[in-house]
Design a protein that fits this description.
- The longest helix has 15 residues.
- Strand 5, helix 6 and strand 6 form a beta-alpha-beta unit.
- The protein is 32% helix and 16% strand.
- The chain starts with 20 loop residues before the first helix and ends with a helix.
- It binds iron/sulfur cluster.
- The site of iron/sulfur cluster (SF4) has 12 residues, from loops.
Protein backbone atom coordinates (compact mmCIF):
# COMPACT_ATOMS: atom_id res chain seq x y z
CA UNK A 1 0.00 0.00 0.00
CA UNK A 2 1.26 3.53 -0.81
CA UNK A 3 0.36 6.86 0.75
CA UNK A 4 -1.05 9.64 -1.42
CA UNK A 5 2.35 11.32 -1.25
CA UNK A 6 4.13 8.15 -2.34
CA UNK A 7 1.81 7.94 -5.36
CA UNK A 8 3.06 11.29 -6.64
CA UNK A 9 5.49 11.09 -9.57
CA UNK A 10 8.31 13.50 -10.43
CA UNK A 11 6.07 15.14 -13.04
CA UNK A 12 3.76 18.06 -12.26
CA UNK A 13 0.53 18.68 -14.19
CA UNK A 14 0.46 21.60 -16.59
CA UNK A 15 -3.34 21.83 -16.64
CA UNK A 16 -4.88 25.32 -16.58
CA UNK A 17 -5.21 26.83 -13.14
CA UNK A 18 -8.58 25.92 -11.67
CA UNK A 19 -9.17 22.96 -14.00
CA UNK A 20 -11.34 20.20 -12.52
CA UNK A 21 -8.64 17.68 -13.44
CA UNK A 22 -6.67 18.64 -10.32
CA UNK A 23 -9.50 17.53 -8.05
CA UNK A 24 -9.93 14.29 -10.00
CA UNK A 25 -6.21 13.51 -9.73
CA UNK A 26 -6.15 14.18 -5.99
CA UNK A 27 -9.30 12.12 -5.45
CA UNK A 28 -7.90 9.26 -7.51
CA UNK A 29 -4.61 9.10 -5.60
CA UNK A 30 -6.46 9.25 -2.27
CA UNK A 31 -8.84 6.47 -3.35
CA UNK A 32 -6.02 4.19 -4.57
CA UNK A 33 -4.19 4.73 -1.30
CA UNK A 34 -7.24 4.18 0.91
CA UNK A 35 -8.31 1.06 -1.00
CA UNK A 36 -4.84 -0.36 -0.38
CA UNK A 37 -4.11 -1.12 -4.03
CA UNK A 38 -0.44 -1.93 -4.48
CA UNK A 39 1.12 0.44 -7.06
CA UNK A 40 2.85 -2.47 -8.85
CA UNK A 41 -0.52 -4.22 -9.22
CA UNK A 42 -2.39 -1.15 -10.47
CA UNK A 43 -2.51 0.18 -14.04
CA UNK A 44 -3.90 3.48 -15.29
CA UNK A 45 -4.83 3.56 -18.97
CA UNK A 46 -5.64 6.80 -20.77
CA UNK A 47 -6.34 8.08 -24.26
CA UNK A 48 -5.93 11.54 -25.76
CA UNK A 49 -7.15 14.74 -24.15
CA UNK A 50 -6.30 16.75 -21.06
CA UNK A 51 -7.39 13.70 -19.02
CA UNK A 52 -4.90 11.58 -20.97
CA UNK A 53 -2.08 12.87 -18.80
CA UNK A 54 -3.38 11.19 -15.62
CA UNK A 55 -0.98 8.19 -15.80
CA UNK A 56 1.99 10.60 -15.84
CA UNK A 57 1.12 11.84 -12.36
CA UNK A 58 0.30 8.64 -10.45
CA UNK A 59 3.12 6.27 -9.50
CA UNK A 60 1.52 3.04 -10.66
CA UNK A 61 1.93 1.34 -14.00
CA UNK A 62 0.45 3.44 -16.80
CA UNK A 63 -0.28 3.45 -20.51
CA UNK A 64 -1.23 6.52 -22.55
CA UNK A 65 -2.67 5.26 -25.81
CA UNK A 66 -4.40 6.70 -28.83
CA UNK A 67 -7.68 8.59 -29.02
CA UNK A 68 -10.72 6.60 -27.95
CA UNK A 69 -8.90 3.31 -27.39
CA UNK A 70 -8.67 3.24 -23.60
CA UNK A 71 -11.05 0.32 -23.21
CA UNK A 72 -9.50 -2.12 -25.74
CA UNK A 73 -6.11 -1.59 -24.07
CA UNK A 74 -7.59 -1.87 -20.57
CA UNK A 75 -9.45 -5.05 -21.58
CA UNK A 76 -6.26 -6.57 -23.00
CA UNK A 77 -4.43 -5.85 -19.74
CA UNK A 78 -7.19 -7.50 -17.70
CA UNK A 79 -7.16 -10.56 -19.95
CA UNK A 80 -3.37 -10.87 -19.76
CA UNK A 81 -3.33 -10.50 -15.98
CA UNK A 82 -6.63 -10.25 -14.15
CA UNK A 83 -4.90 -9.82 -10.81
CA UNK A 84 -4.20 -6.21 -11.80
CA UNK A 85 -6.48 -3.33 -10.83
CA UNK A 86 -7.18 -1.53 -14.09
CA UNK A 87 -8.45 2.05 -14.15
CA UNK A 88 -9.35 3.84 -17.39
CA UNK A 89 -9.15 7.65 -17.70
CA UNK A 90 -10.87 9.42 -20.59
CA UNK A 91 -12.52 12.69 -21.47
CA UNK A 92 -16.06 12.95 -22.84
CA UNK A 93 -14.78 13.06 -26.42
CA UNK A 94 -12.46 10.11 -25.89
CA UNK A 95 -15.08 7.96 -24.11
CA UNK A 96 -18.38 8.88 -25.73
CA UNK A 97 -17.26 10.07 -29.20
CA UNK A 98 -14.20 8.39 -30.62
CA UNK A 99 -14.37 5.48 -28.17
CA UNK A 100 -18.16 5.16 -28.04
CA UNK A 101 -18.32 1.77 -29.73
CA UNK A 102 -15.74 0.28 -27.36
CA UNK A 103 -17.69 1.61 -24.41
CA UNK A 104 -20.89 -0.19 -25.46
CA UNK A 105 -19.20 -3.56 -25.80
CA UNK A 106 -17.06 -3.31 -22.67
CA UNK A 107 -20.19 -2.53 -20.65
CA UNK A 108 -22.16 -5.48 -21.96
CA UNK A 109 -19.16 -7.81 -21.42
CA UNK A 110 -18.72 -6.61 -17.84
CA UNK A 111 -14.92 -6.51 -17.97
CA UNK A 112 -13.63 -5.46 -14.55
CA UNK A 113 -12.41 -1.94 -15.31
CA UNK A 114 -13.12 1.25 -13.36
CA UNK A 115 -13.70 3.88 -16.04
CA UNK A 116 -13.36 7.53 -14.99
CA UNK A 117 -14.69 9.92 -17.61
CA UNK A 118 -13.65 13.55 -17.12
CA UNK A 119 -16.81 15.04 -18.59
CA UNK A 120 -16.38 18.78 -19.26
CA UNK A 121 -18.76 19.00 -22.23
CA UNK A 122 -16.03 20.22 -24.59
CA UNK A 123 -12.83 19.17 -26.35
CA UNK A 124 -10.35 21.08 -24.16
CA UNK A 125 -6.95 19.94 -25.45
CA UNK A 126 -7.80 20.99 -29.00
CA UNK A 127 -8.89 24.41 -27.67
CA UNK A 128 -12.65 24.18 -27.49
CA UNK A 129 -14.85 22.24 -29.89
CA UNK A 130 -18.31 20.76 -29.31
CA UNK A 131 -18.17 17.28 -27.73
CA UNK A 132 -20.79 14.49 -27.51
CA UNK A 133 -22.01 15.85 -24.16
CA UNK A 134 -22.15 19.54 -25.13
CA UNK A 135 -25.58 20.99 -24.44
CA UNK A 136 -27.72 21.79 -27.50
CA UNK A 137 -27.25 25.41 -28.51
CA UNK A 138 -23.77 25.65 -26.96
CA UNK A 139 -21.55 27.87 -29.17
CA UNK A 140 -17.96 26.69 -29.58
CA UNK A 141 -15.23 27.03 -32.21
CA UNK A 142 -16.73 24.13 -34.17
CA UNK A 143 -20.34 25.29 -33.72
CA UNK A 144 -20.18 29.12 -33.67
CA UNK A 145 -23.96 29.38 -34.11
CA UNK A 146 -24.66 26.80 -31.40
CA UNK A 147 -24.62 22.99 -31.40
CA UNK A 148 -27.63 21.57 -33.25
CA UNK A 149 -27.24 18.00 -31.95
CA UNK A 150 -28.81 16.52 -28.84
CA UNK A 151 -26.11 15.54 -26.33
CA UNK A 152 -25.46 11.99 -25.17
CA UNK A 153 -26.65 11.21 -21.67
CA UNK A 154 -23.82 8.87 -20.57
CA UNK A 155 -25.64 7.66 -17.46
CA UNK A 156 -28.79 6.61 -19.35
CA UNK A 157 -26.65 5.06 -22.06
CA UNK A 158 -24.66 2.97 -19.58
CA UNK A 159 -27.75 1.78 -17.73
CA UNK A 160 -29.41 0.77 -21.03
CA UNK A 161 -26.27 -0.97 -22.28
CA UNK A 162 -26.07 -3.30 -19.28
CA UNK A 163 -23.32 -1.70 -17.19
CA UNK A 164 -23.22 -3.17 -13.68
CA UNK A 165 -22.11 0.03 -11.89
CA UNK A 166 -23.17 3.46 -13.12
CA UNK A 167 -22.47 6.72 -11.29
CA UNK A 168 -22.24 10.44 -11.89
CA UNK A 169 -20.30 12.78 -9.63
CA UNK A 170 -19.33 16.46 -9.58
CA UNK A 171 -15.70 17.16 -8.74
CA UNK A 172 -16.80 20.31 -6.86
CA UNK A 173 -18.50 18.01 -4.32
CA UNK A 174 -15.14 16.53 -3.43
CA UNK A 175 -16.02 14.30 -0.45
CA UNK A 176 -18.99 12.83 -2.28
CA UNK A 177 -16.83 12.27 -5.35
CA UNK A 178 -14.24 10.39 -3.26
CA UNK A 179 -16.91 8.27 -1.59
CA UNK A 180 -18.46 7.21 -4.93
CA UNK A 181 -15.02 6.60 -6.43
CA UNK A 182 -14.17 4.26 -3.54
CA UNK A 183 -17.39 2.32 -4.24
CA UNK A 184 -16.59 2.12 -7.95
CA UNK A 185 -13.06 0.85 -7.33
CA UNK A 186 -14.43 -1.94 -5.13
CA UNK A 187 -17.02 -3.02 -7.71
CA UNK A 188 -16.46 -6.45 -9.24
CA UNK A 189 -17.23 -5.68 -12.86
CA UNK A 190 -17.31 -2.69 -15.18
CA UNK A 191 -17.86 0.61 -13.38
CA UNK A 192 -18.58 3.87 -15.19
CA UNK A 193 -18.05 7.07 -13.21
CA UNK A 194 -19.06 10.12 -15.24
CA UNK A 195 -17.29 13.05 -13.57
CA UNK A 196 -18.68 16.55 -14.15
CA UNK A 197 -15.48 18.53 -14.40
CA UNK A 198 -15.44 22.19 -15.47
CA UNK A 199 -13.02 23.20 -18.22
CA UNK A 200 -12.33 26.72 -16.96
CA UNK A 201 -10.57 27.85 -20.14
CA UNK A 202 -12.92 26.85 -22.94
CA UNK A 203 -16.31 26.10 -21.41
CA UNK A 204 -17.87 29.31 -20.09
CA UNK A 205 -21.30 27.71 -19.74
CA UNK A 206 -20.80 24.64 -17.54
CA UNK A 207 -18.83 26.30 -14.75
CA UNK A 208 -18.34 25.33 -11.09
CA UNK A 209 -21.15 27.75 -10.24
CA UNK A 210 -23.45 26.35 -12.94
CA UNK A 211 -23.05 22.81 -11.57
CA UNK A 212 -23.16 23.84 -7.91
CA UNK A 213 -26.55 25.47 -8.45
CA UNK A 214 -27.96 22.31 -10.04
CA UNK A 215 -26.49 19.13 -8.59
CA UNK A 216 -28.23 17.21 -5.83
CA UNK A 217 -27.29 13.91 -4.23
CA UNK A 218 -29.46 10.90 -5.01
CA UNK A 219 -28.91 9.52 -1.52
CA UNK A 220 -30.49 12.64 0.02
CA UNK A 221 -33.68 12.22 -1.99
CA UNK A 222 -34.23 8.53 -2.54
CA UNK A 223 -31.93 6.84 -0.02
CA UNK A 224 -30.66 3.42 -0.99
CA UNK A 225 -33.06 1.40 -3.13
CA UNK A 226 -32.69 -2.18 -4.37
CA UNK A 227 -31.24 -2.23 -7.91
CA UNK A 228 -33.87 -1.58 -10.57
CA UNK A 229 -32.57 -0.81 -14.05
CA UNK A 230 -35.82 0.80 -15.26
CA UNK A 231 -36.11 3.14 -12.27
CA UNK A 232 -32.43 4.01 -12.58
CA UNK A 233 -32.90 4.79 -16.28
CA UNK A 234 -35.84 7.06 -15.54
CA UNK A 235 -33.88 8.93 -12.86
CA UNK A 236 -30.97 9.32 -15.24
CA UNK A 237 -33.22 11.22 -17.66
CA UNK A 238 -33.23 14.20 -15.32
CA UNK A 239 -30.84 16.88 -16.61
CA UNK A 240 -31.33 20.62 -16.60
CA UNK A 241 -32.37 22.76 -13.67
CA UNK A 242 -31.63 19.78 -11.41
CA UNK A 243 -28.86 17.24 -12.00
CA UNK A 244 -28.70 14.09 -9.85
CA UNK A 245 -25.30 12.80 -8.71
CA UNK A 246 -24.46 9.52 -6.98
CA UNK A 247 -24.70 5.82 -7.77
CA UNK A 248 -27.66 5.26 -10.11
CA UNK A 249 -27.34 1.51 -10.48
CA UNK A 250 -25.25 -1.39 -9.22
CA UNK A 251 -25.65 -5.14 -9.53
CA UNK A 252 -23.44 -8.20 -9.23
CA UNK A 253 -22.95 -10.38 -12.29
CA UNK A 254 -20.12 -12.65 -13.49
CA UNK A 255 -17.37 -10.70 -15.16
CA UNK A 256 -16.02 -11.46 -18.62
CA UNK A 257 -12.81 -12.70 -17.00
CA UNK A 258 -14.73 -15.02 -14.64
CA UNK A 259 -16.32 -16.78 -17.59
CA UNK A 260 -13.24 -17.38 -19.74
CA UNK A 261 -12.09 -21.01 -19.40
CA UNK A 262 -8.55 -19.95 -20.41
CA UNK A 263 -8.25 -17.95 -17.18
CA UNK A 264 -9.48 -20.67 -14.81
CA UNK A 265 -5.92 -21.76 -14.00
CA UNK A 266 -4.82 -18.20 -13.21
CA UNK A 267 -3.73 -15.15 -15.18
CA UNK A 268 -2.31 -15.83 -18.63
CA UNK A 269 0.78 -13.88 -17.61
CA UNK A 270 1.52 -16.54 -14.95
CA UNK A 271 0.76 -19.65 -17.03
CA UNK A 272 3.53 -21.84 -18.43
CA UNK A 273 3.36 -21.52 -22.21
CA UNK A 274 6.75 -23.06 -22.94
CA UNK A 275 5.12 -26.06 -24.66
CA UNK A 276 2.92 -23.91 -26.92
CA UNK A 277 4.06 -23.97 -30.55
CA UNK A 278 3.56 -20.28 -31.36
CA UNK A 279 5.15 -20.65 -34.83
CA UNK A 280 2.42 -23.07 -35.88
CA UNK A 281 -0.31 -20.69 -34.69
CA UNK A 282 1.31 -17.70 -36.39
CA UNK A 283 1.71 -19.62 -39.67
CA UNK A 284 -2.09 -20.01 -39.84
CA UNK A 285 -2.43 -16.22 -40.09
CA UNK A 286 0.43 -15.44 -42.49
FE1 LIG B 1 -8.54 21.73 -17.98
FE2 LIG B 1 -9.82 22.82 -20.03
FE3 LIG B 1 -7.35 23.61 -19.44
FE4 LIG B 1 -7.79 21.17 -20.45
S1 LIG B 1 -8.14 23.13 -21.48
S2 LIG B 1 -6.44 21.66 -18.75
S3 LIG B 1 -9.76 20.63 -19.52
S4 LIG B 1 -9.19 23.85 -18.15
Amino acid sequence: MATTLELKTEHNPSWCQGCGNYGILNGLKAAISQAGFEPHLTVLVSGIGCSGKDPHFVKTYGFEGIHGRVLPVATAIRLANHRLKVIGCSGDGDAYGIGGNHLLHTMRRNVEITYLVHDNQIYGLTTGQTSPTSIKGFATKSTPFGAIEEPINPVSLAIAAGATFVARVFVGEFNHFKQVLAQALKHKGFALVDILQPCVTFNYLNTYQWFSQRVYKLDDEIGSEPPDRIKAFNRAQEWGERIPIGVFFQETKPTYEDQLPQLKEGPLAEQDISSVDIKKTLSEFI
